[in-house]
Amino acid sequence: MIRHLTLALLPLLAAGCASSGRPVPVIPTTPAASVQARGETDAVATANADAADDPAIWRNPANPAASLIVGTDKKAGLHVYDLSGKDRFFIDAGQVNNVDLKDMGAAGIIVAASDRNDRKNAKLALFRLDTTTAKLIPLGIVPVGAGEAYGVCLMASGGTLHAFNVIKDGTIRQVALDLSGAAPTGKIVRTMKLGTQSEGCAADDRTGRLYVGEENVGLWRFDARADGPVAGTLIAPADGQKLVIDVEGVTLVPEGTGNGGYVIVSSQGDHAYT
Hints:
The protein is mainly β. Helix content is about 0%, strand content about 55%. It has one domain: TolB, C-terminal domain (Neuraminidase), CATH 2.120.10. The chain is globular, with a radius of gyration of 18 Å.
């Protein structure tokens, strides 16, 4: 439950920059604003543990006040909260780390969680969010290769839903999902790689770009197209000032009618947001 945070914004279209090696953590001197949270969610039932982890927000376009938050208890399953923070629904999904959602029109609001119940074999747990009842309807489990499932983010491209599954060792697999059958299936269309432990990610439908946080290195940008190059660009190194290791969650805040906006990264080393 977040009670306060410090916040600075990183322009979405920032130029790339290079860095090598792991930075030494220091006390940041970059000025930051301190803001007070307007609310907090009910605590997860897994007490006295590092369990409440990753959220995804469904914005109700007709009534934003009726929007919903899907959040993980990474030791138990998924919760659905309203904007007052009330826990509206819980589903036992076991050990799920990160979560994302995407409005797929006629197919509904699809929710994907990184399923790490089997630490040697990564999977995606897929659900449909019933926005009227705030319930999650299980669709199925999709295997996505070897390794421990860690981060996940979704992107819609040409009517196809793509999941980017970030494995704990820095492997990133792009999976094209097929939701047309009785149970969902997935095909790995390409693989990318970062050198060390990575987790948070966000994909931009508008620009076809993928942003991934390598925890002790910084924020990377990739081409998110299935046929695009697999090499990434380090756009925000963990320099101990603007971004302090370890780098965790990543989210996008679009702005205006074009492709602009912001990337917000949680800097867990100093409990701040850049």
